[in-house]
């Protein structure tokens, strides 16, 4: 542990530190999906597949908004996503069908201290529990660490949202703790669980993602051979 001239313990040196960059990419291409900055061209797909009345009721329990009952209502929400710089929202476009099947965002963007969060994650039933969904998270994390140069990548959720916490751990985020009575939403309390990945952890996680996504890890029926959290780096 480093100490200063007064004998007090201090953090590790960051003499070559540079501030991170603000997200600007409009297209991030992968093998199974492409992340595209949300635009009007995604309206029909996102309403039909993700945000509209046909979406699964259960996925809205822990989100700050409800699904949209009509296209005019959704139009207002989409306009906010398009115009906002933070959150910076991406549509997840399936490469095979060409349809937007999910949406997520980079948010709480702090370039000075090199910290950023992935949030507002909304998947269609077609995207959930698929190889494509994992690739989408991999593409976003790679963009954050390798192009934007962030030191810290966060995931937060309602502490009662078991599926979100499980997903964070599977993707390599580490649990840091729970902030009690952090928010009020939908007229109820939210204790918020915090998770993160830091830059020094990314190289091993990147290898794990790439090995998991490889064809070698899937059988002839498309089933995974090794789970992401257990695969060799």
TrEMBL record:
<protein>
    <submittedName>
        <fullName>GNAT family N-acetyltransferase</fullName>
    </submittedName>
</protein>
<dbReference type="InterPro" id="IPR000182">
    <property type="entry name" value="GNAT_dom"/>
</dbReference>
<dbReference type="InterPro" id="IPR051908">
    <property type="entry name" value="Ribosomal_N-acetyltransferase"/>
</dbReference>
<dbReference type="InterPro" id="IPR016181">
    <property type="entry name" value="Acyl_CoA_acyltransferase"/>
</dbReference>
<dbReference type="Pfam" id="PF13302">
    <property type="entry name" value="Acetyltransf_3"/>
</dbReference>
<feature type="domain" description="N-acetyltransferase">
    <location>
        <begin position="33"/>
        <end position="191"/>
    </location>
</feature>
């Amino acid at each position: 542990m480093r100490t200063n001239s007064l004998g007090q313990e201090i953090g590790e040196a960051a003499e070559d530190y540079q501030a991170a960059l603000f997200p600007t990419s409009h297209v991030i291409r992968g093998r199974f999906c492409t992340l595209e900055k949300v635009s009007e061209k995604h309206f029909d797909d996102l309403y039909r597949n993700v945000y509209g009345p046909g979406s699964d009721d259960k996925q809205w329990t822990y989100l700050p908004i409800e699904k949209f009952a009509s296209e005019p209502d959704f139009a207002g929400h989409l306009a906010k996503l398009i115009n906002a710089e933070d959150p910076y929202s991406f549509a997840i476009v399936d490469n095979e069908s060409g349809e937007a099947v999910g949406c997520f965002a980079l948010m709480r963007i702090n370039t000075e201290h090199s910290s950023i969060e992935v949030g507002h994650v909304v998947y269609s039933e077609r995207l959930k529990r698929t190889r494509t969904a994992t690739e989408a998270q991999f593409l976003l994390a790679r963009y954050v660490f390798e192009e934007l140069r962030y030191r810290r990548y966060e995931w937060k959720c309602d502490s009662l949202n078991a599926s979100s916490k499980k997903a964070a751990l599977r993707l390599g985020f580490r649990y840091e703790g729970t902030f009690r009575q952090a928010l009020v939403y939908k007229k109820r309390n939210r204790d918020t669980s915090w998770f993160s990945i830091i830059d020094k952890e990314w190289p091993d996680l990147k290898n794990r993602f790439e090995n998991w996504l490889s064809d070698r890890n899937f059988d002839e029926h498309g089933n995974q051979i090794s789970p992401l959290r257990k695969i060799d780096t």
